[in-house]
Amino acid sequence: MARKLILDCDTGTDDAVAIMLAALHPELDLVAVTTVNGNVEVQYCTDNTLRVLDHIGRSEVPVHEGLRRPLVRPDFPVPRNAAVNPNSNIHGRELPLPPATSRKQGQGAVEFLVETYRSTTEEIALVPVGPLSNIAAAIAIEPRMVDAVPEVVIMGGGNVKGNATPSAEFNIWADPEAAAAVLAAGFRRITLVPLDATHQALVSREQCRALAALGTPAGEAAAALIDRRITGYDATQPMAVRESAPVHDALCVAYLVQREVLDVHRLHVDVETAGALTVGRTVIDAYFRGGKEPNCDVALGADAAVFGDFLLRTLAR
Ligand code: BDR
Ligand code: CA
After folding, report:
1. Which one, of 261, 257, 298, 275, lies nearest residue 156 by Cα?
2. Which CATH number fits domain 3-315: 3.30.300.130, 2.60.40.10, 3.40.50.300, 3.90.245.10?
3. For ligand 1, is residue 165 a contact (CB within 6 Å)?
4. pTM
């Protein structure tokens, strides 16, 4: 039986690939997509999500719009307009796909999450690949939600890498209090997929050509989106591996189906919510110095070949 999941996205280019994988893989059953303020303002994340689902013929998947602000802060630690934001090159505001004809649901994302996990008798994995605002709000309203979620797979954090700042990854930095609340909430199983893993599963221009050659709406769209990411990374990031880019969020979906795509370690992770230089940093106790019980499976590596193959096979549909 296909594994059910809810994707919580701030839909830019890599979220879009994650949505396509989740919507198209035969072993996955995408129950809904919830959106959150992140790569772009939430209304654009919602519109982008609808565009993706329409484009691949899955417009029946419900889309619930979520929070437009972080959980406790009025804005990101450095407000979007003032931030030097390499994301704008990598995502753009509107994805280059035809305008959506389908509409978002009337029910908001947080209410949807609370009600779904209150009532479900089935196992529905939760895969947040944006800032964790919706998830933290939902567990604040319904703390028992942690018992109803079999598994949480989060794209976020970094052990030796940052991207929003020198020390912090974007999703965690964008709402650090929410991330801290989610990690401390007591979910049965959390897998954290940080930059250390996603940067080991780079996708190249050559792989984009192979995706485009599939001739499917999903293959062609993914090729264009990843190509844009490669150009953005090459232009803005001096440490980039040229002519390739990570597709962070998509790796979380691959992990649901092919566990061997990630090299995971059971570790304790805290989130820095205070320091001016380090706000949003995931403090990953990789050498067991903190004396705290592990609270996450942390991916410190990824298998690029397994991931590349997963992309090609899934987006051929
Ligand atoms: C994360 O931040 C966003 O820009 C991407 O969509 C991804 O979820 C990577 O740091
Ligand atoms: Ca994302």
Report:
1. 298
2. 3.90.245.10
3. no
4. 0.97
